[in-house]
Amino acid sequence: MVVAQRGKIVTFDMKTTRPDAPDLLAAMLGPTGNLRAPTVRVGTTLLVGFDADMYRSALT
Predict the structure, then answer these.
(1) CA distance 37 to 60
(2) What is the tens place of the pLDDT at every residue in 21-45?
(3) 47: CB partners within 8 A, 6+ apart
């Protein structure tokens, strides 16, 4: 899972070190408590939030 939030990109490797649910929710939810938009699944990777470079690397 890759999350773009406030100008930074945070990557969670769910296979090796699965983070706690509160940590995942804190990364995935925006300041209003809603899921960050856009949220897209590309293969086995979940992209949350928007960063042009993040999408460019995931889609190429």
Answers:
(1) 21
(2) 999 999 999 989 999 999 999 999 9
(3) 1, 2, 4, 38, 39, 40, 41, 54, 55, 58
